[in-house]
Amino acid sequence: MTFAEFVALLQEERIRYVELRAVDLSGRLRGLTIPAEAFSEEMVNEGVGVDGVHYGLAQTEESDWVLLPDLDAVYLDPLRDPPAAIVLCDLGRPGEGPSPLSPRNVARAALRFLRDAGIAQDAKFSVELEFYLFEEIQVSDTPLSQGVEIFPIEGQPGPTGDLLPPAFPAYHLSGPQDRGRALRDRVVEILTRWGIPVRYHHHEGGGYGQMEIELGMASLLQAADWTVLAKDLIQRAAQEEGLIACFLPKPLYNQPGNGLHLHQCLIGADGNLFAGEEGLSETGLAYVGGLLLHGRALSALVSPSTNSYRRLRPGFEAPVELFFGTADRTAAVRIPGYLRNPQELRVEYRPPDPTCNPYLALAACLMAGIDGIRQGIDPASKGWGPGRKRRVPSLPRSLEEALDALRRDHEFLSVGGVFPPELLELWLAQKEKEAAEVAARPHPFEFRLYA
To answer: Which domain holds residue 136?
Structure first.
């Protein structure tokens, strides 16, 4: 979209404000608001100044960065009153264009490397967004009080006032028991208006109000854009209803966790490169081999929170080992068993969760798959499937373990300058700090065990 076309859109839709949005290093959507009449072509070309420290990409001594609006990523916001247009942005230093450290630019670089290597023309991704809807979350985090109390939207009142989950599986609940359906309908209507396709939405397996919305397939950068927009939209729509949309990987003890499963395939001149005569092609298998070979290091980017490893435990269909299988939801890489059209064949990487930065997570998966193809890795000959074997590599058991794995295995990310070393060091430093902060706090269960 040209600047003139953008101005015409603002006038036609009577848009009052322009919301410039970009994700920080962690994947949180940040931004600033500009009155529509003050938005200029110079802002598009030169950017709008921001403090890069708060985006996790700069030190205080060199904190002057800019938001660079992408007029091909414009979305009219129906939840905003007065009306506003959301414009997704890259991050960069003044006068230098998008920075190699900018998460959107990393996604762009991964796609460029894929094409320059002559492997494929495009990488397609589809994302499953899982989340809980709660009425309230009360958190206490002081020296004298450490704890959380959650008030869910669903559950059966017990004799002591606590809510009990259903005595039957909550997966695909319908009717009055599905208290999130109306909100999901509203979110999907807005996503569809934005041109973001939705495969379906439904109640997930968590009996205290777990939901899922699965987006359609798109090229890597667009799929990541859609993911951050959908997550933000879900949270804001829930807030309007007086609810909280919680994307924490494991918010509830002994209940299903929230994943961000990534469906993916490569596209060439003749269509889907994963399509073989009898299932997954050699290219597809090698791509899977790359995901499994680098799975432990990938965890630091796709499961990047301390809470992620409360989800990645046996049970609740969460993967704990690095193997592939058809229709196996305990596998790290699942090949959907219901696909009959070879052109629709794809693989699903199941360890990721919503605490990831989608741009970095999708780009990292692609780089792992590319490395598998370049090395010609056959996961079956290595004993990594199909199905669980006696000895297969395990996923990390903690964020610290995942960060150690990334420190040892990161060359596949840096090939072609896709993930600059400076970016990986910033990521590792931030995540090590988060892990230390959590480790310093006593856990309520410790009082039951030891006090």
So the answer is: 115-450
**How long, in residues, is the chain?**
451
Let me know if 135 is exposed, middle or buried by CB neighbors in 10 A (0-12, 13-18, 19+).
middle
Among 99, 124, 149, the domain-final residue is 99
What residue type is 19 in one-letter code? E
d(CA 51, CA 66): 8
The identity of residue 86, as a single letter, is I
Number of structural domains found in the chain: 2
Indicate which residues carry an active-site annotation. Answer: 51, 128, 130, 204, 212, 261, 329, 348, 350
Is 220 a member of any domain? yes
Q: Is the pLDDT of residue 134 over 90?
A: yes
CA-closest candidate to residue 283, choices 264, 302, 260: 264
Tokens 């480790």 locate to 439
Question: Where residue 418 sits, what CATH number does that domain have?
Answer: 3.30.590.10
Computed from CA positions of residues 333, 259, 199, 114, in that sequence, does the dihedral angle turn out positive or negative?
Answer: negative
Note whether residue 365 is domain-resident. yes
Q: Which one-letter amino acid corresponds to residue 240?
A: E
In a domain, 262, yes or no: yes
One domain, residues 287 and 173: yes
pLDDT digits (tens, 9 = 90+) for 86-102: 999 999 999 999 999 99
In one-letter notation, the amino acid at residue 235 is: Q
* Contact between residue 299 and residue 402 where contact means Cβ atoms under 8 Å apart: yes
Are 157 and 296 part of one and the same domain? yes
Match 């990645």 to its residue by tokens: 312
pLDDT tens-digit readout, 321-359: 999 998 888 899 999 887 778 888 999 999 999 999 999
Of 145, 184, 136, nearest in space to 163 by CA = 136
Estimate the crossing angle of helix 358-375 against helix 103-116, to 10 degrees.
20
